[in-house]
Amino acid sequence: MEEQHDALPAWQVERWLNGPGPATLDELRGRLVVLHTFQMLCPACVQHALPQAQRLHRMLPREQVAVLGLHTVFEHHAVMGAAALEAFVHEYRLTFPIGIDRAAPVGELPLTMAAWGLQGTPSLLLFDRLGRLRLQHFGHLEDLPLGLALGQLLVEPQPLAGATAAPAGAPVAPPAACDDHGCAR
């Protein structure tokens, strides 16, 4: 688990499923944001990350915590388009907002995945109430460490009006591997 205190460039979401979704992290200022990145053909995403996101969405107060998904496809592009994702979201009964990462005009990595230096899927990102990235974890993060991280962020003092996020940090170089915890790019 990698703790950070950085802001990231804006996400590049093509469209949202399960409602309009936030246009930017700034719209969620004042709330914690739990963002699960996934691919619908990633076993660890389907078995662990998405059920965890759905549980969090059901149990956490929405006025304090926003749970979001970001479908960020870096492989098997032809079979993981928007129509397939819509059917997947319906069949798995996912109810939290899910953004579709915008495809790059050139290359396989979608824009947000590339800009954020994500290593693969699933990846979990926690943002504090100021929109600062506080935790970025590649692979499935078990419920207990995630709960502890969320609890720590929930008890932090509320930000003052006009407070801003820290500047973005450099992306981390990705490992090249795939196992039960996730699929690396």
Description:
- The protein has 185 residues and is of the alpha+beta class.
- It has one domain: Glutaredoxin.
- The chain contains four helices and ten strands, in the order βββαβαβαβββαββ.
- The chain has helices at 43-59, 82-91, 111-116, 143-155, and strands at residues 2-6, 13-17, 32-38, 65-71, 98-101, 120-121, 123-127, 133-138, 178-179, 182-184.
- It has a seven-stranded mixed β-sheet with strand order 1-8-7-3-4-5-2. A three-stranded antiparallel β-sheet has the order 6-10-9.
- Strand 9 (178-179) and strand 10 form a beta hairpin.
- The model is unreliable at 1-5 and 165-176 (pLDDT under 50).
Structure summary:
It is built from 4 helices and 10 strands. It has 185 residues and is α+β, with helices and mostly antiparallel strands.
